[in-house]
Amino acid sequence: MSPPGTFSHWFLNNKAIHLWITMGILVSLAIAAWYMDFMSKTIYGELVPSRKDFLRHPYESTKRFIETYKMHIEHQSQLSAQQRLKKEEDVEKRKQYRLARIREAEERGEEYVEDPRYYIGEDGVRRRRVKRWFGIWE
User: Fold this and answer.
1) Distance (Å, rounded) from C-alpha 55 to C-alpha 36?
2) What is the pLDDT of residues 59-78, one digit of tens each?
3) What is the DSSP string of 52-76?
4) How many CB atoms lie within 10 A of CB 72?
């Protein structure tokens, strides 16, 4: 250990410097991980400016990157909306199928009995009922 009063002692025992270095490394790793994830998932990868462009024209390349990112987010939003609509259609189809089965049973004069062990969730999927035992889910 360095003797007190020296630069190395000050550097090794200064919490602010260690915090600054640690946070700088963590933030740079988080940005690098986010960028790599973005580049692997986007369909607009060819529109993202290269690193050389960023060094030569930082403002223009940053502006282009932000535009590309907005296009990517808009595309992801459209995909999510399509998936949501598809799920809603599936729920409606399940509901119609279940109602048709009930009508068929009524036309035959039978009583449509649902299995008490199952219930129909909000999403239209048939799920098993969960038993409670002393307030704890099994």
Assistant:
1) 19
2) 999 999 999 999 999 999 99
3) HHHHH-HHHHHHHHHHHHHHHHHHH
4) 18
Other Cβ atoms less than 10 A from the Cβ of 62: the count is 13
Lookup: tokens for 21: 């270095």
Where b means 16+ CB within 10 Å and e means fewer, 110-119 reads eeeeeeeeee
* pLDDT, tens digit, 9 for 90 and up, residues 8-42: 999 999 999 999 999 999 999 999 999 999 999 99
| Domain-located, residue 18 | yes
Task: Judge contact between 90 and 125, C-beta under 8 A.
Answer: no
Do 64 and 36 fall into the same domain? no
Written as six digits, the tokens of 22 are: 């640690």
Alpha-helical (H) ranges within the chain are 7-13, 15-41, 51-56, 58-107
Domain that holds residue 93: 59-128
Dihedral sign of CA atoms 52, 54, 60, 64 in order:
positive
Length of the chain: 138
